Amino acid sequence: MKILLSILCLFVGFSSVADAKDAPVQITKNGTKVNVTIAGKPFATYHTGSDLPKPFFSPVRAADGTIITRSLVDPEDHPHHKGIWVAVDEVNEVDFWAEKGKIKNSEVKVIKAAGNPAVMQVTNQWLGEDGKPIVTETTVISIYANRLLTYDITFKAGDKPVVFEDTKEGLFGIRLPNGMREKEEGSVENNTGIKGTKDNWGKPTEWIDYYGPLHGKLYGVTLMDSPQNFKKSRYHVRNYGLFTISPFGDHSYTNKKSPADPKHLKAGGTFNLKYGLYIHEGNTQQGKVAAAYQQFLKVTGSKPADKKQTARPQPKAKKVSVAPKKPAAPAKKVAAAPYEEKSAPVKPIPETEAVSNPDCNCCPAPVQRRRGLFRLRRNRQ
Q1: Given strand 118-127, what is the order of strands in its sheet?
Q2: Backbone angles phi, psi at 17, to 5 degrees
Q3: C-alpha span between 298 and 292 (Å, rounded)
Q4: Most buried one in 61, 127, 231, 298, CB count within 10 A?
Q5: What is the pLDDT at residue 381?
Q6: Phi, psi of 3 (to 5 degrees)
Q7: Rounded to an integer, what distance in angstroms lies between the CA atom of residue 153 and that of residue 172?
Q8: How many other β-carbons are positioned within 10 Å of the β-carbon of residue 354?
Q9: Are the beta carbons of 66 and 219 closer than 8 angstroms?
């Protein structure tokens, strides 16, 4: 009887190993790196080294192995655009986007090492000048076999209040390689059919797809917003390959037409954000982006807004005596959104897992700032 039980246990053990080996998605920790495979082939590597300014995924591959993130070796501009990352400017006036502040990984927990999805949880501390966490980011990353990634991000304030300022520089996104960029042969399209970075930059919408050719074949990346988030997010989508989504920046994204809406947290306070990133081959239709968005809503427990809602009846306006009209003041000119890349090339970084380069033209050296009525705003790309 004992012999039979032993044989049965061995059989079950080998079966479990085989199942794990054949799982669609697998996550494996290897020192300061986390390797992800899909169908047994490399998909992405998450870097957590203490020598890095922040954690990030790079490289990230399409199904045929083509890398769809910009190389970290000798980038022509913005060395802080690393693969797929989470960062934002001006959290208690610390510029994490430009890597003036350090985001330190404290833990990677593999929740589900193999399956569809495979799941991991990362804990990253956003450090202040005193070396203590301003906020702690806990993000659950689920990776599906069709190359949909969901990010469930929770921020928790440290022992002091926290302010996420109004800025266009953030929060979750990817830097695409040359070739896919709109300024070359790339295309941008949102869920309502609006095309181009100019008409999609800074706008809230369910999703935006950015696709273009690499080595003669089309590849695309979609960013998705969740209706569960505390407000609608806007997209920092640029013709030179930057592609991010953020709920911070109503004032910045509308050329100061909308009021600033910073996010305040009490000491120990929390808030949550959910985003999706989908990698596909072909254009928006060929990549079945709309179906991937429905998958994102389903797996995150979201429900799309009911487009057939009946409008509430509006009360009739009361007649009010009209004062004599004064001559209208001439309209003030508002600067156009910076859709085109204007910064000059910066000194490249030679290492594959490069640390921050402080010489980025879009990121001036940190200065001692005082909050006040006439606070100067910085203009980075």
Answers
A1: 103-112, 118-127, 133-143, 148-157, 270-281, 217-225, 207-214, 187-190
A2: -60, -45
A3: 10
A4: 61
A5: 52
A6: -65, -45
A7: 10
A8: 19
A9: yes
What burial class does residue 137 get, using C-beta atoms within 10 Å of its C-beta: 0-12 exposed, 13-18 middle, 19+ buried?
buried
Which residue's structure tokens are 């203590």?
A: 132
| Residue appearing with tokens 């190359």 | 147
Mapped onto helix, strand or coil, the DSSP state of residue 365 is: coil
CA separation for the pair 120, 34 (Å, rounded): 10
CA dihedral 210, 263, 81, 139 (to 10 degrees): -80
Pairing status of strand 170-175 against strand 242-246: antiparallel
Q: Residue 196 has which token pair?
A: 């181009």
352 DSSP 8-state letter: T
293 φ/ψ angles, rounded to the nearest 5 degrees:
-65, -40
Positive or negative: CA dihedral 168, 231, 211, 33: positive
Q: Which helix (DSSP H) or strand (DSSP E) does residue 10 occupy?
A: helix 2-21
Statement: the pTM of the whole predicted model exceeds 0.90: no
* β partners of residue 173: 85, 244
- Report residue 250: phi and psi, to 5°: -55, -40
Structure-token pair, residue 240: 């030179």
- Of the candidates 169, 199, 210, the residue with the CA atom closest to the CA atom of residue 78: 169
In this structure, are residues 126 and 158 in contact, taking their beta carbons and an 8 Å threshold? no
Q: Can you tell me the distance from the alpha carbon of 254 to that of 250, in angstroms, rounded to the nearest whole number?
A: 6
Hunting for tokens 């809406």 — which residue is that? 261
User: How many residues comprise the chain?
Assistant: 381
Which residues of the chain are modeled with pLDDT < 70? Answer: 1-23, 303-381
Q: How many helices (H) and strands (E) does the chain have?
A: 4, 19
